[in-house]
């Protein structure tokens, strides 16, 4: 493994734009790291795709990008990718530190008072956490909730499309049952972008569990502490975005990325 005691260059990976919730949190805390963001919009979302496809696809993505861009730490800002492939990726790309995002079930167990918990996640993520959830099933009511429609809607919201709150509320309410949770786990990074709407749809929910802080805590074990100092920024390694499919909204998307700190975009073919 590389000596990364003073790491500065981070790769953040997702199938869509949900991973930007992780980026936005990290860049507020560590603004002077160099960030590369890759989103596989050609096959967004990963949540309903086969495990074998996801693994092969992510391996090819990382392999392609490492030829074009320097990075030292990989953040899987996608719960689906994390639960399906993180151990395999750590074996294949052993020169890098690889951090993942997974639904924080244990944290939710600690916080809940009424013992009713919702986990909002993709179909594939839910398959992987069922065993863990069943371990708590005698004492806690944990409901696993998935909606690819809602994830797609959030993706459009991130891109700047105006989404009526009532549409989001309607989907959330249809996914729920008569048991009102006091704790909701965001098991997909997209849901961070509608945390306000989730709280409004479930006013009795007092705990919204998000994995961003854990990712940040893990990351600080490896990054150079000087990265918080403005003068230490590597101006020759500007933040960059990679994507896999061009569409008619790429100009608007390019402007959006510039506003949040990414000055370059590049399409890659896998």
Automatic annotation (TrEMBL):
<feature type="binding site">
    <location>
        <begin position="46"/>
        <end position="47"/>
    </location>
    <ligand>
        <name>substrate</name>
    </ligand>
</feature>
<comment type="pathway">
    <text>Cell wall biogenesis; peptidoglycan biosynthesis.</text>
</comment>
<dbReference type="InterPro" id="IPR033134">
    <property type="entry name" value="Asp/Glu_racemase_AS_2"/>
</dbReference>
<keyword id="KW-0413">Isomerase</keyword>
<feature type="active site" description="Proton donor/acceptor">
    <location>
        <position position="78"/>
    </location>
</feature>
<feature type="active site" description="Proton donor/acceptor">
    <location>
        <position position="188"/>
    </location>
</feature>
<keyword id="KW-0961">Cell wall biogenesis/degradation</keyword>
<comment type="function">
    <text>Provides the (R)-glutamate required for cell wall biosynthesis.</text>
</comment>
<feature type="binding site">
    <location>
        <begin position="79"/>
        <end position="80"/>
    </location>
    <ligand>
        <name>substrate</name>
    </ligand>
</feature>
<protein>
    <recommendedName>
        <fullName>Glutamate racemase</fullName>
        <ecNumber>5.1.1.3</ecNumber>
    </recommendedName>
</protein>
<dbReference type="InterPro" id="IPR001920">
    <property type="entry name" value="Asp/Glu_race"/>
</dbReference>
<dbReference type="GO" id="GO:0009252">
    <property type="term" value="P:peptidoglycan biosynthetic process"/>
</dbReference>
<dbReference type="GO" id="GO:0071555">
    <property type="term" value="P:cell wall organization"/>
</dbReference>
<keyword id="KW-0133">Cell shape</keyword>
<dbReference type="GO" id="GO:0008881">
    <property type="term" value="F:glutamate racemase activity"/>
</dbReference>
<keyword id="KW-0573">Peptidoglycan synthesis</keyword>
<dbReference type="InterPro" id="IPR004391">
    <property type="entry name" value="Glu_race"/>
</dbReference>
<comment type="similarity">
    <text>Belongs to the aspartate/glutamate racemases family.</text>
</comment>
<feature type="binding site">
    <location>
        <begin position="14"/>
        <end position="15"/>
    </location>
    <ligand>
        <name>substrate</name>
    </ligand>
</feature>
<feature type="binding site">
    <location>
        <begin position="189"/>
        <end position="190"/>
    </location>
    <ligand>
        <name>substrate</name>
    </ligand>
</feature>
<dbReference type="GO" id="GO:0008360">
    <property type="term" value="P:regulation of cell shape"/>
</dbReference>
